[in-house]
Write a structure and sequence with these properties.
The chain is α+β, with helices and mostly antiparallel strands. 35% of the residues lie in helices and 21% in strands.
Length: 430
């Protein structure tokens, strides 16, 4: 691609950028927490259809994906889990195909009085857009779509098939992306603009979610010594899990991409509930755990170690020693993934194309990072032999109060994405 061509693409992104910001604000206004994504997906489907893409909107059926590699167990059904994919078909070009993936689901907003302004009333201040999901990752969905719009603005389309995916479940299982694979959406590469500050993610962790269910003996608090407090019984079990977390982070157990990271694997007690009455010794307690894993760490072996740790800790408790904790796995059952370990020709070429695009936009080399979270990249990289590049804008306070995304960073990512598409897929006249 010649310099004038690249310059024209950058200017085309500028020409459509006001519309992109308006689109992002509208998308962010939809409160698309888990189970409530339908209105946002309706909006996405409408925008894709208006551009002439083939639109596939379907409700995920657990039975279709439950036996596939990468499936994460769920509680309940998926009657409200809707995916949307828009497809661009080349008119006859021979360019490489591409998946542009992003997730529509956002995490709960938390206490509203802790936000400076309502989370689903996006506002712009000092070059940042604020709102739940603005950064994670509706800005990425916008950059995917408007990179294509910029090319269209110039009178071009990709010379390879492109699949624009808006998926659910990324924040809890990843089963939305898995359902896209099951439905037959495959390509030569995937690009996922998660908000990691315009850096290429070369490794990501796996994640396990599980619940620990504890029983106790309820008695009137006046006779507390004759009962067994299920909530207090959780405390030594949580401590034992944190000791395990420390062992898993020891240098000899680290993946090479995390050799210099002293604490890449984080255990989080995300929820706890129990008991029925303030003056009764609680007869039950449930706490929810998130635990990270290194790429290559076997999920079944990790689960066996978790179960052994909890069983050993329960032995010292007078009631739990005879009433073992019950462990229920639901949600993330995710393996780690390292793009850096993919030496295929497609991976080398895709990374090179993104490096060139990033340098053209920013004038700087593309930084590479190993992140301590997971993304949907694992499905493409591990189960579809598809190099998955995670590269998105700068955002702050994702999953927190006053989440925000830097709009100039969104512009740069959109420009880099448009250049990447032109390089990877090639271009053809509309």
């Amino acid at each position: 691609m010649t310099t004038p061509d690249e310059t024209a693409i950058l200017k085309a992104v500028d020409a459509v950028f006001d519309r992109e910001i308006k689109f992002l604000a509208e998308l962010t206004s939809h409160p698309s927490t888990r189970g409530n994504e339908q209105s946002a997906q309706d909006f996405m489907a409408g925008e894709l259809a208006a551009r002439g893409y083939e639109v596939d909107r379907w409700t995920i059926d657990v039975a279709d994906i439950a036996r596939l590699p990468g499936f994460s167990p769920v509680i309940g059904n998926y009657e409200d889990a809707v995916n949307v994919v828009g497809t661009h078909r080349t008119k006859g070009g021979n360019g490489k195909s591409l998946i542009l993936n992003g997730h529509i689901d956002v995490v709960p907003e938390g206490p509203l009085d802790m936000w400076d302004t309502p989370p689903y009333e996006p506002r712009i201040e000092d070059g940042w857009m604020y709102g739940r999901g603005a950064g994670d990752m509706k800005a990425g969905l916008a950059s995917n779509l408007f990179a294509l719009d910029a090319l269209r603005h110039m009178g071009f389309a990709p010379a390879g098939d492109v699949f624009i995916q808006s998926v659910v479940e990324e924040e809890c299982t990843g089963n939305g992306a898995l359902a896209c694979l099951q439905r037959g959406y495959k390509a030569d590469a995937a690009l996922i603009p998660e908000p990691f500050e315009e850096k290429l993610v070369t490794a990501q962790l796996g994640v396990l979610w599980f619940q620990v269910h504890l029983k106790g003996i309820p008695v009137h608090v006046a006779y507390a010594g004759s009962g067994s407090n299920a909530i207090e019984a959780a405390i030594p079990l949580i401590a034992a899990l944190h000791e395990m977390e420390h062992r898993w982070n020891e240098p000899e157990r680290r993946h090479g991409a995390y050799a210099g990271h002293n604490h890449a694997l984080n255990l989080n007690i995300g929820k706890i509930k129990g008991g029925d009455w303030t003056s009764s010794v609680p007869a039950w307690c449930v706490f929810d755990v998130r635990m990270g894993l290194f790429p290559g760490q076997n999920l079944d072996e990790a689960k066996r170690e978790i179960e052994a740790v909890l069983a050993e800790a329960a032995k010292s408790h007078p009631f739990l020693s005879k009433n073992a904790p019950e462990i229920v796995y639901h949600g993330f059952h995710a393996e780690g993934y390292a793009l850096s370990e993919d030496s295929s020709a497609d991976a080398v070429q895709a990374i090179s194309a993104l490096e060139h695009a990033h340098h053209t936009v920013t004038g700087a080399s593309l930084d590479k990072i190993a992140i301590t979270a997971t993304t949907d990249a694992r499905f493409f990289g591990l189960y579809a032999d598809t190099p998955a590049l995670v590269y998105g804008p700068r955002a702050e306070s994702i999953h927190g109060f006053n989440e925000r995304v830097e709009l100039e960073s969104v512009r740069r990512v959109t420009q880099a994405t448009a250049l990447f598409i032109a390089n990877w897929c090639g271009l053809e006249k509309l």
